[in-house]
Amino acid sequence: MSNYDVLIIGGGPGGYNAAIRAGQLGLKVACIEGRETLGGTCLNVGCMPSKALLHASELYEAATSGELNNLGIEVTPTLNLAQMMKQKDESVTALTKGIEFLFRKNKVEWIKGWGRLHGPGKVTVTLADGSVRELQAKDIVIATGSEPTPLPGVTIDNQRILDSTGALALPKVPKHLVVIGAGVIGLELGSVWRRLGSEVTVVEYLDRICPGLDDETAKTLQRTLSKQGMRFKLATKVSAAQATAKGVILDLQPAAGGAVEQLQADYVLVAIGRRPYTAGLGLETVGLATDKRGMLENQQHKSGVPGIWTIGDVTSGPMLAHKAEDEAIACIERIAGHAAEVNYEAIPGVIYTKPEVATVGKTEEQLKAEGRAYKVGKFPFTANSRAKINHEAEGFVKVLADERTDQILGVHIIGPSAGELIGEYCVALEFSASAEDIALICHPHPTRSEALRQAAMSVHGWAMQA
After folding, report:
1. What CATH number did the domain enclosing 259 receive?
2. Can you give the CATH number for the domain in which 393 is found?
3. 55, 118, 443, 445: which one is catalytic?
4. Are 228 and 317 members of one domain?
5. How far is CA 47 from the centre of its chain?
6. Residue 308 pLDDT class (50, 70, 90 cuts)
7. Whole-number mean pLDDT of the chain?
8. Own/partner long-range contacts of 126-130 (Cβ < 8 Å, ≥24 apart)
9. Are residues 28 and 97 located together in one domain of the fold?
10. Are residues 99 and 175 in the same domain?
11. Is residue 140 located within the same domain as residue 285?
C-alpha cells in the first residue's frame, strides 16, 4: 500500500490546483484522475473549449454581419466548421499538457484511474487495465466536480438531444437549435450556434433568464440577445422529447399548467444546470452522505469526517472553476497547518455572451431582502469613449454601495470585456473599499475601465462624462 500526505480525488480546477499547492508546500501528494487528460470538465469539455468557440464565432459574425465592412475591411468569409473544431481541440490539448508539466515541476504524482474511498484514510484506484491499487493518506481531498443535471422526460443521447459536451462537438450547424435552460451554459452555447447560422430558441421554466443575476442586468441581457435573433419562451416547461433520425419533437406547456404545444428542432441542448458528481465514490465506507441537493458538507472545507475534505462543485457555493481554485488553495493551506480563508462575498461570476456580463457581491434584490440601505451609481458604455469608438457601446456598469459607510456591496457590468473589468471590483470588495476610493483613482484614457470609475462617481452624483 502506497503512503501519501495528501490524496486528491479529481483532476479538475479544484483537484489540480490543490495538488500543485500541496507539492509547493513539500507534501507528498497524488492526484487521482481517470480521464486521459487532466483539467476536468472545465478544460476538457467546459470553460475552455466553449471560449474557443465563442471567440471564433464572434469573429465569424463580425465578418458576415457587415461589421468588418463598416470598418473598411472587406471580406467574403466561408465557415470551415471542421477547422474551427480542430483549433478548439488543439488549444484544449495544449492546456491539459500544461497541467501535466506543472505536476512534474511540483512533484505531484498523477495516478490515472478512478478513485474510491475504502475506509478512513484509504483509497482504492481502479486503473485502466482493470487492476486495483491501494493507497492511504492522512488527508484525502474530494474534488470530483459535477455533471449535467438530467431533465425528466428528456433522454440525452448526444446524437440529437445533447448535453454541453455534445453541443461543443456538433458536426454541422443546426438549422434550429432548442436550448432548454436560460442559464450561463445555455446562453453561451446558444450564442455560438446562433452566430454560426442557427435559429436558436431558449426554453426556460422560470419567467426570467439567469436566476440569481441582478434583475436589471438580466433584463438588459435578454433584450440584447433577442435583438441579435435569439428567441425566448419563458415560464415554459418541457414535458417530453422524442428524437428521430432527423430531429427532435418537444412537448411544451406553461410552467403553471395548461395546453401542450409541440416544437420541432434539429438538435436540443439540455442545459438546466449541474449536480455534484459522487457516484461510486464509496462515501458510505467512511460514514459520509450527501444532502438533498447531492452536495457534501463543507465547514471550512472539512467534510465532517476527520481527514476528509471537500472542495469545488461537489460542495456548497457557486459551481465555478475559480471558486474551486480558491477553495483548493485554502484547503491545502489548512492541511499544512497554515491560516487560510475564502471570501465568498468576493467571488465573481461571468457570462461570456456578447456583450459579456460580470458580477461580484450583492444584487439589488438581495440588499432589499436584507433591509440594507444602499446607493446606486450607474454609467452607460454609450458614454465611454473607447467603447463608443469600437462600436461596442451596449450596456452599463452599476455600483451598489452602503448608504451610510459608502462601502461597495456589489457591482454588475454588462458590456465589452466585462469579465476582465470585474477584477478591479473584486479587489475593491476584498479590501472593503468605498465607492469614493474608486472614484478618486486615476484610470487610463481612453479605456473601457473608465466606466468603472465613472459609475463609482455616480454613486455620489458626480459622474462627469454622462
Report:
1. 3.50.50.60
2. 3.30.390.30
3. 445
4. no
5. 7
6. very high
7. 97
8. 126/34, 128/34
9. yes
10. no
11. yes
pLDDT at position 137 is: 98
Same domain, 290 and 143: yes
Report d(CA 446, CA 274) in Å as an integer. Answer: 40
445 flagged as catalytic: yes
Q: CA 285 to CA 115: how far, in whole Å?
A: 13
Say how many C-beta atoms besides its own lie within 10 A of residue 159's C-beta: 11
Last residue of a domain, one of 225, 256, 272: 272
- The candidate with the shortest Cα–Cα distance to 239, out of 222, 219, 259, 223, is 259
Residue with cell string 465613472: 454
Residue 156 placed within a domain: no
| pLDDT higher than threshold 90 for residue 1 | no
Look at the block and give the residue holding cell 470585474: 422
Quote the cell numbers at residue 91.
488549444
User: Domain limits at 37?
Assistant: 2-147+275-342
| Unique residue bearing C-alpha cell 458604455 | 381
The residue from 323, 342, 361 where one domain ends is 342
Beta bridge partners of 113: 127
* Segment 169-219, tens digit of pLDDT: 999 999 999 999 999 999 999 999 999 999 999 999 999 999 999 999 999
Q: What is the pLDDT of residue 37?
A: 97
pTM above threshold 0.85: yes
Do 342 and 430 meet the contact criterion of CB atoms below 8 Å apart? no
Asked whether residue 326 carries a pLDDT value surpassing 90, the answer given is yes
